[in-house]
Amino acid sequence: VAKDAGRSRWEVYHDVYRRDALRRLSVETELRTAIDRGQFLLHYQPVVELDTRRTVAHEALVRWMHPRRGLLLPGEFVQIAEESDLINGIGGWVLREAVEFLARHPELPGKVYINVSPRQLGRGTPATDDRDAGLAPLVEQVLRANDVPASRLGIEITENGVLQATEQTREDLEQLAALGVELLLDDFGTGFSALTSVLSTPVSGLKLDRSFTVRLGDGAACDRISTAIAALVDSLSSHGVVEGIETEKQWALALGHGWTHGQGWLFGHAVAESALFPVVDTSF
Ligand code: C2E
Ligand code: MG
Ligand code: MG
Ligand code: MG
């Protein structure tokens, strides 16, 4: 870059790294107070049955209403939260909020799925006194406190999260499954997956990542892989959801390949509770 001419390469890199480190530090500091200040919210994206396009479930996606920067998507803060352990507090908030949402809307069709980071599994969260309790006891407690059956809640954990799983993580997942909470493998197809390790986890379905969906129709190989994964999912009697469907063509291809469920902007964006349940104005 011209304006950097005359400066050593080291100085330029140094500046970039310092800016990045400072930005991360300020996000981390602000994240620490964000829960207390009520700055998080959930948006809910419909999951549809592909052939009828009926909504059969919702995925809860966290957003941060930042006082200066506005509404931030998880890409801006989830990784930083995971690296600093703040993810346990945020994850606990997400769980409570989603379960309270379920309690407020008993007529809502299907489950609500929350996303859980690997760091929330197999260990204590700030919400439980027992540091080694894990996520399952917390989920059980929150469901019970809100009188919501476990069958209405689903948990998504990334393929990479499962690959990193320790013995404690697996036990936690077993306990969650035993509660009757459905577990889904998220972002399937992104990592290079040790298939046996993934398939020996008690998940009841998988979600094909959007990076795969955008390539549907790209060529025979992509379509055959998609068809094969859909058949594998079906033969294991699990659920398959195709993420990020934006076009009619992608919908038709996914359906043609044998997938049963999908999610994406073609069917609906993630919207606030107030948009899902508009307040009816009865004042006139
Ligand atoms: P994900 O779980 O794979 O969620 C799907 C992401 O794709 C969401 O982005 C969603 O808004 C977006 N999306 C859905 N349909 C379409 C589409 O048709 N086109 C495009 N371009 N995008 C689509 P979002 O909300 O930014 O979330 C990103 C990721 O952040 C999520 O990926 C999930 O891994 C993570 N995340 C979200 N909420 C939470 C949470 O509460 N806890 C944790 N640990 N992670 C979360
Ligand atoms: Mg997800
Ligand atoms: Mg996903
Ligand atoms: Mg994804």
Automatic annotation (TrEMBL):
Residues 24-284 form the EAL domain. It comes from the Bacteria. This is GGDEF domain-containing protein. It comes from Cellulomonas cellasea.
